[in-house]
Amino acid sequence: MARIGVVGAGYVGLTTAACFARLGHTVVCADVDEAKVAALGRAEVGAHEPGLAELVGEGLRDGRLRFVLGNAAALSDVDFVFLCVPTPTGPDGAADLTAVHAVLREARDAVPPGCVLVIKSTVPAGTTERVAELVGRSDVQVVSNPEFLREGHAVDDFLRPQRVVVGAEAEEAARRVVALYEGTGAPALVTRSASAELVKYASNCFLAMKLSYVNSLAELCEQVGADIADVTEGMRLDDRIGASFLEPGPGWGGSCFPKDTRALLSTAEDAHVDFPLLRATIGTNGHQAHRVVAMVRDAVGPLPLDGARLGLLGLTFKAGTDDLRDSPALAVAGLLAEEGARLTGYDPCVSADCGPVRVLESPEAVARDADGLVVLTEWPEFAELDWPNLAALMTAPVIVDTRNLLPADKVTEAGFHLVSLGRPA
Ligand SMILES: NC(=O)c1ccc[n+]([C@@H]2O[C@H](COP(=O)([O-])OP(=O)(O)OC[C@H]3O[C@@H](n4cnc5c(N)ncnc54)[C@H](O)[C@@H]3O)[C@@H](O)[C@H]2O)c1
Ligand SMILES: O=c1ccn([C@@H]2O[C@H](COP(=O)(O)OP(=O)(O)O[C@H]3O[C@H](CO)[C@@H](O)[C@H](O)[C@H]3O)[C@@H](O)[C@H]2O)c(=O)[nH]1
């Protein structure tokens, strides 16, 4: 079993640390956020991730996992260091590698001979090879090992991944990293580091492209009398297309797709490769929030949006997470507020007000005296609401379902005017 340092205790770093401890390794997880490190030492996990708090508690009790403030302890007396720090969008759209570079500068003088530095943060093709030169130690290898976990499924995705991808110029170092995942049973792919880095962007951008395609199809369905649910069901039956990532919505969001699509486009531009498909993928997504606002405007009309009281159901970027980063729900809220709408919202994982949205404690509180409701996140509980009761609380029972989640028959029976995406009027 190996000694592993993990730098960054966010969604990826904390999952990596807790899961490697579960797989039997000894892990030191470092972060610069003092409050976070203190809470993790008490097994208090801020993020809403099924199973993660339990694994952290187990690792702490067994002595295989500890949390430290500052990176020094994660960089000494370890065989591997996993870099799991943020790579946000920089001012020009490219990934901002400031945190990665900062950790590598610390690591350069601190890690023991034979240590493997593993870049798990999402970084542009070519980064690993370039930073290996920056580290400049012949006794230390730098390897790319992108992470594919989904928020809300982080533990499961880490312990049972569909693939482990490791990219390195030195194959022996790559094989050592692959061996760390032995307990997962996942197939491993070893490539050059630039290829591994690109697998990550290629996968996220492909999924985003699929979603933009479906969102445009939904818009087309509304114009030609087709139903997007039937169209995607027909598509799903074709193995070559695949069954997932075909649900239309208010646009794709979260901490990864928006920044990774922009970063890949920036990489392509730097490499003088025209990538119109990716530009269109991003552009189509930018259009979705405006499209939702137009649907809301039509649904509540003749009442103007200026002054309308609207209740938003769902604020996170998808169900199953408390993450609000780049949430399409908040993009829609921002545009509605610009038009003068007064917004309340309910989300099972959000309790603090978000920008223009006053967050209330229940769907009923949001429906009370509302001129319309908008479903923005596909929390399953929204499909089970007491529709007659909600209708009675509102000034007019109008609902726009941007996730096509609601049982149309029950909702309309309760007297609602229901508008869904991609459904004939
Ligand atoms: N969130 C996901 O679902 C996901 C999935 C796959 C890959 N990724 C990639 O993984 C990376 C991390 O993403 P995340 O969502 O876990 O980020 P996050 O914001 O949840 O966590 C990052 C953590 O790193 C810490 N940190 C920042 N600078 C540091 C430094 N210099 N030293 C030590 N700690 C530092 C922060 O305090 C924070 O706790 C990104 O490149 C992201 O694209 C994320
Ligand atoms: O049929 C679908 C599926 C997803 N979405 C939306 O697409 C976005 C992204 O969803 P998802 O991929 O589940 O979220 P993430 O947790 O951000 O995971 C993605 O981004 C991670 C960070 O890079 C990767 O590791 C994962 O493999 C990749 O799925 C969200 O806004 C979803 O609501 C839809 O609108 N319709």
TrEMBL record:
<dbReference type="InterPro" id="IPR017476">
    <property type="entry name" value="UDP-Glc/GDP-Man"/>
</dbReference>
<keyword id="KW-0560">Oxidoreductase</keyword>
<feature type="binding site">
    <location>
        <position position="36"/>
    </location>
    <ligand>
        <name>NAD(+)</name>
    </ligand>
</feature>
<dbReference type="GO" id="GO:0000271">
    <property type="term" value="P:polysaccharide biosynthetic process"/>
</dbReference>
<feature type="binding site">
    <location>
        <position position="318"/>
    </location>
    <ligand>
        <name>substrate</name>
    </ligand>
</feature>
<feature type="binding site">
    <location>
        <position position="122"/>
    </location>
    <ligand>
        <name>NAD(+)</name>
    </ligand>
</feature>
<dbReference type="InterPro" id="IPR014027">
    <property type="entry name" value="UDP-Glc/GDP-Man_DH_C"/>
</dbReference>
<keyword id="KW-0520">NAD</keyword>
<feature type="binding site">
    <location>
        <begin position="245"/>
        <end position="249"/>
    </location>
    <ligand>
        <name>substrate</name>
    </ligand>
</feature>
<dbReference type="GO" id="GO:0003979">
    <property type="term" value="F:UDP-glucose 6-dehydrogenase activity"/>
</dbReference>
<dbReference type="GO" id="GO:0006065">
    <property type="term" value="P:UDP-glucuronate biosynthetic process"/>
</dbReference>
<feature type="binding site">
    <location>
        <position position="259"/>
    </location>
    <ligand>
        <name>NAD(+)</name>
    </ligand>
</feature>
<feature type="domain" description="UDP-glucose/GDP-mannose dehydrogenase C-terminal">
    <location>
        <begin position="311"/>
        <end position="408"/>
    </location>
</feature>
<feature type="binding site">
    <location>
        <position position="325"/>
    </location>
    <ligand>
        <name>NAD(+)</name>
    </ligand>
</feature>
<feature type="binding site">
    <location>
        <position position="87"/>
    </location>
    <ligand>
        <name>NAD(+)</name>
    </ligand>
</feature>
<feature type="binding site">
    <location>
        <position position="31"/>
    </location>
    <ligand>
        <name>NAD(+)</name>
    </ligand>
</feature>
<dbReference type="InterPro" id="IPR014026">
    <property type="entry name" value="UDP-Glc/GDP-Man_DH_dimer"/>
</dbReference>
<feature type="active site" description="Nucleophile">
    <location>
        <position position="256"/>
    </location>
</feature>
<dbReference type="Pfam" id="PF03720">
    <property type="entry name" value="UDPG_MGDP_dh_C"/>
</dbReference>
<comment type="pathway">
    <text>Nucleotide-sugar biosynthesis; UDP-alpha-D-glucuronate biosynthesis; UDP-alpha-D-glucuronate from UDP-alpha-D-glucose: step 1/1.</text>
</comment>
<dbReference type="Pfam" id="PF00984">
    <property type="entry name" value="UDPG_MGDP_dh"/>
</dbReference>
<dbReference type="Pfam" id="PF03721">
    <property type="entry name" value="UDPG_MGDP_dh_N"/>
</dbReference>
<dbReference type="GO" id="GO:0051287">
    <property type="term" value="F:NAD binding"/>
</dbReference>
<dbReference type="InterPro" id="IPR008927">
    <property type="entry name" value="6-PGluconate_DH-like_C_sf"/>
</dbReference>
<dbReference type="InterPro" id="IPR036220">
    <property type="entry name" value="UDP-Glc/GDP-Man_DH_C_sf"/>
</dbReference>
<dbReference type="InterPro" id="IPR036291">
    <property type="entry name" value="NAD(P)-bd_dom_sf"/>
</dbReference>
<feature type="binding site">
    <location>
        <position position="151"/>
    </location>
    <ligand>
        <name>NAD(+)</name>
    </ligand>
</feature>
<protein>
    <recommendedName>
        <fullName>UDP-glucose 6-dehydrogenase</fullName>
        <ecNumber>1.1.1.22</ecNumber>
    </recommendedName>
</protein>
<dbReference type="InterPro" id="IPR001732">
    <property type="entry name" value="UDP-Glc/GDP-Man_DH_N"/>
</dbReference>
<feature type="binding site">
    <location>
        <begin position="148"/>
        <end position="151"/>
    </location>
    <ligand>
        <name>substrate</name>
    </ligand>
</feature>
<dbReference type="InterPro" id="IPR028357">
    <property type="entry name" value="UDPglc_DH_bac"/>
</dbReference>
<comment type="similarity">
    <text>Belongs to the UDP-glucose/GDP-mannose dehydrogenase family.</text>
</comment>
<feature type="binding site">
    <location>
        <position position="200"/>
    </location>
    <ligand>
        <name>substrate</name>
    </ligand>
</feature>
<feature type="binding site">
    <location>
        <position position="253"/>
    </location>
    <ligand>
        <name>substrate</name>
    </ligand>
</feature>
